[in-house]
Design goal:
Layout lengths: L11 H15 L5 H11 L7 H16 L1 H10 L12 H14 L4 H13 L8 H19 L4 H4 L3 H11 L1 H10 L6 E5 L5 H8 L2 E2 L5 E3 L16 E3 L18 E5 L5 H8 L3 E6 L2 H14 L4 E4 L11 E7 L14 H4 L2 H20 L1 E11 L8 H10 L3 E3 L20 E3 L13 E8 L2
Parallel strand pairs: 5-6, 5-8, 6-7, 8-9
Antiparallel strand pairs: 1-3, 1-4, 2-3, 9-12, 10-12, 11-12
């Protein structure tokens, strides 16, 4: 399909794009951001207006966030499952249901566009009548069905429900899931924190207790005041916290392992550290280099495997943002619950153990190592650190104190680790889920 492909029907490209995004995530198991970029590069969104591209992503993201409810309602109106030859019909139905049930689109517009979308596909066109009839019934009766559903249970995979209720209790698990139902705000970290009031005023942003600037999401990031000047970078408030736990790193060497795309590297460099930023992904490091250039910051960039890096010397400060299941980022990446499995988590814990042990071997006596993940799974957080400490007597936990993270006592665990949840700071719009532990090697 050519990038120049166009449709004469207003809004059709957005609907076709949304259904293709859902198929890419739920059938081809591609991350939403990757699928979205591909549709812009060479798919139906290539020639679409910016607002149509944004709407396509909003439809797909909403459908992923509320997939359990949507599928439940659709199933109420289907006598038999769709056959394989139906192609993307299920994605077309899911996208239209998201519009009608959750996005406030006028039902007749959503139904008409869904039928038109089906007519453009060689397989789905044979199911246009079903699409039309089912969605018209859904528009009449769907809201009533929704009102009687347990949304939190339906909209999260069973393994995550079990993990979160076991780890945090049912009430908190439900709050975590509800926090993922809406598009998250936009968070910015400042290059010069002394300019917080200045940029909060220029951007119309709220200042979180941690110092992050928070704006309502929407619009082009590049068009915001301060982007071209390199005054800030995009970084969730929770993701900005682990680097702070290293303490005063002004003029000190810091090794940032698994650094790309580089939000923590930027924070360290902005605070005067001599940073070595290491990652195995050259494309992601290229993005880090671009951000460093835009902000007028510098770091030593190394493309290497963090589990095999052998610089021939030790570091006083190491930050390890380990690869993880990323379940704490589901509000920003609603595809994550549908793409990750317990097997992924278990495979990643093995990798985390290897990386953490190797990082500890690069730590100088008396040095500080911060281990963090954007996962809500205890196996990738507290459990991983406890297992490490049980076999590495030369390292101890150095507890985090609330004054290091804006006085937010609720973000510190009984063990002294940092643990943010999507349900934290609800009055500000929540946080990504992050875990961080600070470890020190005996001198």
């Amino acid at each position: 399909m050519s990038k120049a492909e166009k449709s004469d029907e207003p809004g059709l490209a957005a609907r076709r794009g949304a259904s293709r995004l859902l198929t890419a995530v739920l059938s081809a198991r591609r991350p939403l951001d990757e699928a979205f970029a591909a549709e812009i590069a060479q798919g139906v969104l290539g020639a679409a207006a910016p607002q149509d591209r944004a709407f396509a992503r909003a439809i797909a993201a909403t459908a992923l966030r509320r997939l359990g409810e949507i599928d439940h309602v659709i199933a109420r109106f289907m006598e038999h499952p769709l056959p394989r030859r139906a192609g993307p019909t299920q994605s077309i139905l899911r996208a239209a249901a998201a519009e009608i049930l959750f996005l406030g689109v006028k039902p007749h517009a959503a139904v008409d566009m869904a039928v038109e979308t089906a007519s453009h596909d060689p397989e789905a066109r044979h199911f246009k009548s079903l699409v039309n009839a089912l969605l018209r019934r859904l528009a009449r009766e769907g809201a009533g069905i929704l009102s009687g559903l347990d949304a939190e249970r339906l909209d999260i995979p069973e393994w995550l429900w079990a993990s979160w209720t076991r780890s945090y209790g049912e009430e908190t698990a439900r709050a975590i899931i509800r926090a993922q139902f809406t598009e998250p705000p936009l968070d910015l970290s400042l290059k010069h924190e002394e300019e917080t009031a200045l940029w909060a005023g220029r951007l119309g942003a709220r200042v979180l207790p941690t110092g992050t600037l928070r704006l309502a999401s929407g619009g082009r990031i590049e068009a915001l005041p301060g982007f071209a000047e390199g005054a800030w970078w995009v970084q969730d408030a929770a993701a900005a916290l682990p680097a702070r736990l290293l303490g005063d790193i002004t003029g000190r060497e810091v090794l940032d392992l698994c650094a790309a795309p580089g939000g923590k590297t930027l924070w360290l460099a902005a605070h005067g550290a001599d940073v070595t930023a290491l990652d195995r992904s050259k494309p992601r490091l290229a993005r880090l280099k671009q951000n460093l250039a835009r902000l007028g910051l510098s770091a030593r960039i190394v493309a290497a495997d963090a589990g095999a890096y052998a610089p021939g010397r030790n570091f006083d400060f190491i930050l390890l943002d380990a690869p993880c299941s990323a379940t704490g980022t589901a509000r920003r990446h609603p595809d994550v619950p549908h793409l990750k499995t317990p097997a992924d988590r278990d495979r990643l814990t093995t990798l985390q153990a290897r990386l953490l042990a190797h990082a500890a071997g690069l730590l100088a006596p008396g040095g500080t190592l911060v281990y963090c993940t954007c996962s809500l799974e205890p196996e990738e957080g507290k459990g991983r650190v406890n297992a490490f400490l049980a076999t590495h007597e030369g390292c101890i936990r150095q507890p985090v104190t609330p004054d290091e993270i804006g006085g937010l006592v609720e973000l510190v665990t009984p063990e002294g680790d940092l643990r943010t949840l999507p349900s934290h700071l609800p009055e500000f719009g929540g946080l990504d889920g992050f875990f961080a532990a600070r470890l020190r090697r005996h001198g």
